[in-house]
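1st attempt posting a full record on here, be nice pls
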Amino acid sequence: MQLPAQYLVDSADSVAAVAKLPTELLRQIFLSVVSDCKTSTDITPFFYTITVDMLSPLKLTHICRRWREVATDMPELWTAVASCVGRRIVGNQTNDILSLFLARARGHPLSALIANDLHAANKLCPHMDHIRTLEIVGYPALYTLDILARPAPALEYLILACPPPPDAISFAPIIQAPIIFRENAPSLQALVLLNMSQLPTQSFPVLTDLHVGMQTRPRFEHLLQLLEGTPALESLAVVNYNAREIWNIPDLTIQLSRLRRLALIRMPMHLAMIFLLRLTIPASTTLYVLDISEGIGFPVEIPQTPPISAADMLEMVVCGSTLSFHLRASAQDLAPRVRFEARRDPFSWRWWKSSYQSLPCANLTELRVALEADNDTFLPPFLDAAVALSTLELRLYVPAVTERSGSGIAGARFDGAPQAWVGVCALLEQAMPVVCPRLAEVALIDAASSECAWDGFVAGSEEAPRVAYVPDVLCVVAARAAAGRALRRIAIQGRWRPAQRERVSRAFAMGAVVTDFEFRELDADAPALFEFEDHSVAEVWENGYWRHELPKHTLPWRDVKT
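the predicted structure (as tokens):
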């Protein structure tokens, strides 16, 4: 907007070249300027909003008479309307401008944003046949608006947001499920329902995106009935949902054969599990279960959803209060499939500790774990069940509690072999039965141990000195070779001083019998292997993707497929 106005006249105040542009070129410029200011109708899954700028088209009409004539003759410039135009335009001016936009749009598809303005909502009612994108926010009794009682044949994107209730745990009165648009919204593709005490249960045959975010407690069966009427659904997000009266839920199984993304965020664990048990989804669906709370304290059957049962690769992060998973569906498809996140309250932690029983450990071929260095109880059950495992990568880090306490120095490291690694070695040394019989590649990335962990000696000859950290690894190598399950590759990364490097390498050269062995040093000044932060819901999604990914593969050896 500023550039055309700036160069409208030249230094001699004569008509500049920009004022003589052909009409068709001016129209293209105007469309480009306005399209940069108003939101596209391509709503990002899981992250919905509409913003409207009504001032830009008005500015175009105040440059010169010719620009005004061209702009007012372009209905597509006036199709984005809102109940609030700008800070300097209030009261009747806003209503007049809204009427002006609707008149100049001349029946073109409209995008409308109504924020707690009943007059604007009523003014849009006669134009419902032309509204393509509609967002209504700020009405406690939203379903009583006349605009939702009219057919909407052109509507494709709808966002309905009530204000959050003053008491998040209060119940709304139970009434019959509402019907919107007289069940006449045949083109609706994306629907967002925020803080609604009641959910519509009608059918939306072409709906592909549904986002339900609740601080109220609508009836659970209404959500199931809503899903039952969405056969074309591809993306579903349920956030902050804590339904009431789950004891009399109808025995429905919802078939979502086209679903590609499913996100359950900040739900009680029992409700999330009950919800998953009611769904039948394709094996290619990406499932996100994030920030699950304890809810009620009784065990719930853990569903075997198709994306989990089809996985053959698992990445885990176990840190402090959070356990997270990435699952990959197949070796050919390396896109992340599943991410779980659970707060470690007493009930949910018990559930996640036993999750190896529900995860497809028998199918896993690759397991990459970031683990607290002093946690020697979490990983063995996974390894014991992973009979097909061929690649194990273990990343050890200093637990947060050690950094805050212990020696009192942030980032204090272990001076001996970490308990997590000791526990893994003890399991892999087991002769009968052999744990992980197909295991061929092992990588240890130790960011938790200090240089002192590599200084001590174990009894041995002068020709074959062995540092205190190494014997556990050597015992694993020897035990698996004796059982006919020799390791093909071993890679170790750690922090040690240059003077230690040759001694440690010589210890492995004397004692390890493997096809390929690599021994590398971690840079003491390098950043942490990964970062894991606490998120709010608004920070979870960015452009439909998880913002904070698990660390990339850090396997030290070469020729690793990524």
